[in-house]
Structure formats: C-alpha cells, structure tokens
Write a structure and sequence with these properties.
CATH architecture: Orthogonal Bundle
Number of domains: 1
Low-confidence stretches: none
Shape: globular
Strand order of the largest sheet: 1-2
Number of helices: 5
CATH topology: 434 Repressor (Amino-terminal Domain)
Helix content: 55-70%
Amino acid sequence: MEISYNKLWKLLIYKNMKRKDLKEQAEVSQNIMARLSKNHPVTMDTLKKICDVLDCNIGDVVEFIHVPSDNTQEEEK
C-alpha cells in the first residue's frame, strides 16, 4: 500500500490556502511539507495538526492506495 496526500492538496485549493499558509498555521517544518509533497509517511501528530487547522478528519487529507505487487500480477496470469 502507498500513501497519497492528494486529498490534502485538493482541500487546500478548496479552502483557498497555500502550502505556506498550512505550514505556518499547523506549525510544521519545511521537511514535513517536503515529505507530504513526496507522499512519504509523516507522524500522526503532524496529521492531527493539519486536521486541526483545516477542521477536517484524517480521511479528508490522506488515503492508502493498494498497489498490486509483482507477485500478485504473476499469480493472476
């Protein structure tokens, strides 16, 4: 499974916020913002801060995407 923060970026657009605004209001580092933009894992604490700022639930900013492994594809053939 892979992590996707596409919902977060769409929510920022909907709320007319810039990434810089989120960074400042959620009090997260530039490193965290870079991890989010690369769909890398971040801590639950970070996600909670983001959800508090955006007044949303975790499912509104992150989702897990099932990516079939190579072994699964070979078994289907």
